[in-house]
Write a structure and sequence with these properties.
Blueprint: H1 2-8, H2 13-29, H3 39-48, H4 55-64, H5 66-73, H6 80-85, H7 98-137, H8 155-171, H9 185-193, H10 199-202, H11 208-216, H12 220-238, H13 246-264, H14 282-292, H15 295-315, H16 321-328, H17 333-337
Helix pairs in contact: 5-7, 7-11, 7-12, 7-13, 7-15, 11-13, 13-14, 14-15
Length: 338
């Protein structure tokens, strides 16, 4: 794609076409690393690697696809010693069936659906906390979230703050590139009937990523105020005091944001790792959520996840149980619900 973009700049149509023909001709001349395989060929390949299939396997592959099911969820079922002896070709543990692999696939899908609900609740808390604290401090100002002077002043944040404000302006269609088709009815209502659109209204239209940036780009005093808001919530719902600081809150929501996006994009969740060092697992983000949610929500979440894990452990070979828990960051199912 980079090569194609370069061709488009400062070059005649005839020359561009000649170059593109050469590029695609060279691709046709190479052997495909992953040639197309029919469903029958896919099943034959799986059988040759020791995976037991049945009539149901064909229907699943036809509906879900080989890549999503097999490539996505085979790892826990691969015998690494046998794979090495086979020259690097996958070899499944003896007795593993296609249904076992598909059961892990289904488990992860159910896990995404359930966790997405809790990520959405955490998103709502951050939007409410930011809207309340920021608006309370700037009650006399019209749409203060558009005033860059109210954000952090460090040079390294300036470009990102400008981009965030432009996104807010697009939502309000105060930016030339914004379109009224993107507005929601509640935005129109405030634009037509009031002098301004409050932050708590605008926040309904923002993504978790946007409100996370809004919090991150606040001045230290405002970030501290928002952190105190979370401390008060925790004491109210848990009955004990817990002091949140801005950096702790930022890290927690950075994890929540990343895992929430994994769910939204239908990617693998159970084995996901986030953070620059890729050391934050699902168990870590469940701990983050537990600090933010109400006690009954926390118990509900941990109970649901533990039931899902126990279900997939029951329905798959015992040899993957330890690996599954380790991959998710849990020492045991008991540790999850305690």
């Amino acid at each position: 794609m980079i090569f194609v973009k370069r061709l488009r700049a400062g070059m005649s149509v005839a020359i561009r076409m000649d170059r593109l023909r050469a590029v695609f001709a060279s691709k046709r001349g190479r052997n495909m690393d992953k040639p197309f395989k029919t469903i029958d060929e896919q099943i034959e390949l799986l059988n040759s690697r020791g995976l037991i299939t049945d009539k149901r396997s064909r229907d699943i592959l036809s509906r879900e696809g080989y890549y999503c099911v097999v490539n996505g969820y085979k790892d826990l079922f691969i015998d690494k010693n046998a794979k090495s002896a086979a020259g690097g070709d996958d070899r499944f543990y003896k007795g593993v069936t296609f249904d076992h692999v598909y059961r892990l696939f289904e488990f992860d899908r159910d896990l995404r659906l359930r966790m997405f609900r809790y990520f959405a609740r955490a998103e709502a808390v951050l939007k409410t906390a930011c809207s309340y604290c920021f608006t309370e401090r700037h009650q006399t100002e019209c749409e203060p979230y558009l005033n860059k002077m109210l954000y952090r002043r460090e040079d390294r944040y300036r470009r990102d703050i400008d981009a965030l404000i432009r996104n807010f302006e697009k939502i309000l269609t105060k930016d030339p590139s914004g379109t009224s088709a993107r507005r929601r009815s509640y935005i129109d209502h405030y634009l037509n009937n009031h002098d301004e659109v409050p932050l708590w209204v605008l926040a309904n239209f923002t993504s978790l990523g946007m409100i996370f940036k809004f919090f991150t780009f606040q001045k230290e005093s405002m970030r501290n105020e928002i952190a105190r808001y979370f401390s008060t919530l925790y004491e109210t719902t848990h009955g004990v005091k817990k002091r949140f600081n801005p950096e702790q809150l930022r890290l927690a929501y950075d994890h929540i944001k990343d895992f929430r996006n994994i769910c939204a994009h239908d990617e693998r969740l159970y084995c996901a790792r986030v953070s620059p060092s890729k050391d934050v697992s699902l168990s870590n983000v469940i701990d983050d959520l537990s600090d933010i949610m109400q006690v009954d929500e926390m118990v509900e979440m941990r109970t649901e996840v533990s039931r899902l894990i126990l279900g997939v452990i029951r329905d798959t070979p015992s040899l993957i149980s330890e690996s599954l828990l380790k991959t998710m960051g849990f020492s045991s199912v008991k540790a999850l619900i305690e």
